[in-house]
Write a structure and sequence with these properties.
The chain is an alpha/beta fold. It is built from 5 helices and 5 strands. The model has no long low-confidence stretch (mean pLDDT 96). The structure holds flavin mononucleotide. The site of flavin mononucleotide (FMN) has 18 residues, from helix 1 and strand 4.
């Protein structure tokens, strides 16, 4: 099984990357193949709304760093998307990539019961970190994106959410957040061994 992680923060040692790393390390320990993409280091364009992926092509017509990520996500069984909250939403780096995931939709995506070209059964973990300690702030973010994760065919989705963290590494010093990530990982990679 392969696990692909996308790091949406520009900080490689940041809080969202750190918790995504907890899941990646658990996957490695369970013998899974893993690959991590640091979006901030890559060069790619956003969706050009050319609709080539709906009119003849079954993939995005653009050829840049996002091409490889789109292929890796399509081949993965577990995908980890991680992003800090920037102005109430995901980072620009993540959104720029995610718009390219529009190419996963079939031409009849507006009416189809199964509108995704992705193979069924994929699992997804979303890591969200924010400076604001009140969890009622930005609790709309994940549900908004999760609708689209489900439309894209991710049958099982999980949220790892960190609030009130700012400096890199803070989340990894908070046992409750690390445990949350470990529990999600345990549910994915070691059946029946969830730490209650
Ligand atoms: C440009 C920018 C915008 C931000 N906007 C918000 C925000 O709207 N709400 C919030 O709670 N934190 C906001 N933050 C703080 C980050 O979400 C927070 O520090 C987060 O834990 C950083 O994640 P990272 O360590 O993975 O990079 C912002 C930070 C930056 C740099």
């Amino acid at each position: 099984m392969s696990v692909v992680a996308l790091i949406g923060s520009p900080r490689r040692d940041g809080n969202s990357a750190g918790l995504a790393g907890v899941v990646v390390e658990a996957a490695k320990k369970a013998g899974k193949t893993t690959r991590t993409f640091y979006l901030n280091d890559l060069t790619y364009r956003g969706c050009q709304a050319c609709y080539a992926c709906k009119q003849g092509l079954d993939h995005c017509v653009l050829s840049d760093s996002a091409t490889e990520i789109l292929e890796a996500v399509a081949a993965a069984e577990v995908v980890i998307f991680s992003s800090p909250v920037y102005f109430g939403d995901v980072t620009g780096q993540f959104k720029l990539f995610f718009d390219r995931a529009f190419s996963y939709f079939t031409p009849d995506y507006r009416t189809a019961a199964n509108p995704s070209r992705l193979s069924p059964g994929k699992k997804l973990v979303f890591v969200q970190s924010q400076g604001q300690p009140d969890p009622t702030f930005f609790d709309d973010l994940y549900p908004r994106y999760d609708r689209f994760f489900k439309r894209l065919g991710f049958s099982e989705t999980h949220l790892i959410r960190v609030v009130g963290v700012a400096a890199p590494g803070e989340a990894l010093q908070r046992p409750e957040f690390v445990r949350e990530a470990e529990n999600v990982a345990a549910g994915l990679f070691s059946q029946g061994e969830v730490d209650w």
